[in-house]
Write a structure and sequence with these properties.
Length: 166
């Protein structure tokens, strides 16, 4: 499992873009996690599933309400990721996260597995998923890593991470 002081693995993640822009076509756009975090301070929140009760009711709203606490970090890349770019886009639209939280997908769980933060929920009909966690990345290096115990939501919430950043 990745730990504080480790460099992020160079896995490919995806973001669904609704409007074409410089270097970004409409649809899923892939990028290197390592390249995206180079020279930046980024928070990555990992979660087991979009549209699930805890994630929809507590996790995302906690993040999207925080821009005033740490505006530089929030503007740069308050990042979330999980399975499928289209699902993440729909979930972000449903929770009105545009301009607040980037909804990043790890559809094949390659990034999650490279981190060693995967869990097998096949018996629950969910397949390979991310554990619930939050990490602070500074120039591609893990500075903080809070991994939740199964079924818990106590140390990876936005307020805990923002307190860490102060």
């Amino acid at each position: 499992m990745i730990k504080v002081g480790d460099t992020l693995p160079d896995a490919r993640l995806f973001e669904f873009i609704e409007e074409a822009g410089e270097g970004c076509a409409v649809g899923p756009n892939g990028f290197s996690a390592r390249e995206r975090t180079a020279g930046k301070r980024v928070v990555i929140f990992g979660l087991p599933g979009a549209f699930t009760p805890t994630c929809s009711a507590r996790y995302v709203p906690g993040m999207s309400m925080q821009p005033r606490i740490c505006p530089r970090l929030h503007r740069r890349n308050l990042v979330r990721f999980r399975p499928h770019a289209f699902v993440m886009n729909a979930w972000g639209r449903d929770l009105q996260t545009a301009g607040k939280v980037k909804m990043i997908a790890d559809g094949s769980a390659r990034f999650t597995q490279a981190l060693g933060l995967d869990q097998d929920l096949t018996e629950h009909g969910m397949g390979i998923r991310s554990q619930r966690y939050a990490m602070v990345i500074d120039d591609g290096v893990v500075k903080t890593l809070n991994v939740e115990a199964p079924g818990k939501f106590e140390i990876s919430d936005a307020q805990t991470i923002l307190t860490t950043l102060r």
